[in-house]
Amino acid sequence: MNRFQGKIALITGGGRGIGRASALRLGSEGAAVAVLDRDGAVAEEVAKALRDDGARALALQADITDEAGIREALGGIRSELGPIDVLVNNATRAQKGNLEQTDPADWAAEIEGTLTGAFLVTRSVLPDMTRRGRGAIVNVGSVNGLTYLGNPAYSAGKAGLLNLTRALAVEYGPRGVRANMVSPGTVRTESPNWQKRLAKDPQVFDKLARWYPVGRVGEPQDIAAAIAFLASDEAAFVNGANLVVDGGLTAGMPVMIDELTLETR
């Protein structure tokens, strides 16, 4: 497929996990990809992998909460690749697991890194999109934004991101810009948070898998496929949607059902 031939895509948090998988997926379908990450080294690794596969790619080091840094990064993208057609707001921040651990500084950092940063990047990209009358924005949410699964500040940020997605869809849809969201369940990534959990319990993903009706946790490629669909012209009439990609987690809880239905055994 070449659904993104001739298009420019910006992936925030593109150096690892879902961001990396999304950059590689869109690049494989013809997009020129700008990989933005706080860690410039991992962003360059992804950009090199894209270039090695024949795609145009640019690595940028920036913090999405730094508005001046974002403007500078976007200037580099415009000069090297061109104006952005697709924005994937994937960068996020999750630090504290419960409210008791969360102090005001933690709360501010997680909301800024999850919600405010996405707003700032989107706000910087929208003028180019509206000027040309086209664009697709995909925000990466979480099932944490739909129900309580720990990480309260991060979860509140993801819930806010859902409403931001709807605001963008309603306000900018008439100007040719679509905005949608994908909400993953547990995804096996190399993020620092998961690395800490794996250090404490190497079987954590296997234990979590029993909560998922499909019998496994997600892989970054699962989410990248959904992002690619929402960003593509195949989804031209999809605007303001939240595509839950969670293996059935929020449809029902098989472990609880199993314990409730002892009489069927």
Question: What is the CATH T-level topology?
Answer: Rossmann fold
Specify the CATH homologous superfamily. NAD(P)-binding Rossmann-like Domain
Distance between the termini: 47 Å
pLDDT < 50 stretches: none
H-E order: EHEHEHEHEHEHHHEH
Q: What integer is the average pLDDT?
A: 94
Q: What global shape is seen?
A: globular
Write up what this structure looks like.
- The protein starts with 7 loop residues before the first strand and ends in a 5-residue tail after the last helix.
- It is of the alpha/beta class.
- A seven-stranded parallel sheet has the order 3-2-1-4-5-6-7, with helices on both faces.
- The chain contains nine helices and seven strands, in the order βαβαβαβαβαβαααβα.
- The model has no long low-confidence stretch (mean pLDDT 94).
- It has a single domain, classed as NAD(P)-binding Rossmann-like Domain (Rossmann fold).
Question: SSE layout and pairings?
Answer:
Layout: E1 8-12, H1 17-28, E2 32-37, H2 40-52, E3 57-61, H3 67-80, E4 86-89, H4 104-132, E5 135-140, H5 152-172, E6 177-184, H6 192-200, H7 204-209, H8 220-231, E7 242-245, H9 254-260
Parallel strand pairs: 1-2, 1-4, 2-3, 4-5, 5-6, 6-7
Helix pairs in contact: 1-2, 1-8, 3-4, 4-5
